């Protein structure tokens, strides 16, 4: 096994261990259960920087903004700026994906926005009974996640590649995670909701990492073939 593969394997092990510790801290209701939340994302950033050949700034920006969101939502009075940071991370993905869509595919945008907007409204009405001063940040977040979900779905429909499918599954897990997290924050629930929300979030971030890495490697292989011609 090469040195690079050993480093990657070690980071995968570290990621799995931190994920397990994160779940355990929720189970025992430890005071540091929120403080450890950003560390899995840091491991994924490190893994991506090690594995990528042509640095995809979009994914790094997405992870870093998600990391900021993780930190802010883990501290007192940080929820509102935290979910705004999450929303900005989705806009980064939207800006990246829009360049790969044809004009014909763009015609479907309104349809998907209405669909995902309806789903978000249902969650907002039935889960967030009293969002208080978080209403505007939550609405901003809702618009952003509806946009990125629409763009990821359109991107997959236009180019049904493996990497795009992984991104589609990743945003699906993220929607599930955020929906359950909203229930945890604004309703009385047991720890199993919190565990499920965190677990799906960790799976989602890992799938985003794999999806972007897969697409990035395809782009690198494409340019390598051009250089050889």
From TrEMBL:
What membrane topology is given? Multi-pass membrane protein
As for subcellular location, the record says:
Membrane
One of this protein's Pfam families, by short name? Answer: YhhN
Q: Where is this protein chiefly located?
A: membrane
Which keywords belong to this entry? Answer: Membrane, Transmembrane, Transmembrane helix
Task: Spell out where the chain crosses the membrane.
Answer: 12-30, 83-101, 108-128, 134-153, 165-185, 191-209
UniProt keyword annotation of Transmembrane present: yes
Signal peptide feature range: none
The family note in this entry says:
Belongs to the TMEM86 family.
Q: What is this protein called?
A: YhhN-like protein
What is the protein's species of origin?
Tenacibaculum platacis
